[in-house]
What does this fold into?
Amino acid sequence: AQTVTQSQPEMSVQEAETVTLSCTYDTSESNYYLFWYKQPPSRQMILVIRQEAYKQQNATENRFSVNFQKAAKSFSLKISDSQLGDTAMYFCAFMKHEAQGGSEKLVFGKGTKLTVNP
Amino acid sequence: EPEVTQTPSHQVTQMGQEVILRCVPISNHLYFYWYRQILGQKVEFLVSFYNNEISEKSEIFDDQFSVERPDGSNFTLKIRSTKLEDSAMYFCASSRGLIMAGETQYFGPGTRLLVL
It folds into this structure.
């Protein structure tokens, strides 16, 4: 079974600074997908960024980028130029590739609560 | 932008009672999911639903749980006889297609269930 570990329960960063959230995972699969979801206070989870394991290039979405280290099974999220609106719970998630296109369940970490301070 | 909605936002029930949690997925979505998060623990997959049947269910999803898409818009999770350990935040999610095909699972805001 796959597991996802987020070792930082809480983090804080000053506005405009850069912060990196850690995520490691354990799997025997070679083909899979990784995600970072953001959950602002009292709001739903929204997808921040995704990475396909077969892609060597790290995904980037504006101020959000990942450092995907497949051999180390590490998938960290870097937020540049942090904004107050980035304050949220961040969840790392894993999904294995289903060859027959069946159910696609996400396996989540416990989350990291990020606070951006003014 | 379309969103997944869930009702109620909070529900308190007595142990042994039946509860129905409701979700309205995004209208053109075909794949539906329920997850739950016990306080302080990980978000866990419960069940996936496609083409009017369960695609996969976890060990948590025992005979006390059922899902239904009664009218083509709502997607419900029923717990027949609630237990204290069912207290959790329940998230509904939907997707237009498969993540493998580049689609995304969109989540609702959750229903916080408290079983007393």
Remarks:
- Chain B has a mean pLDDT of 94.
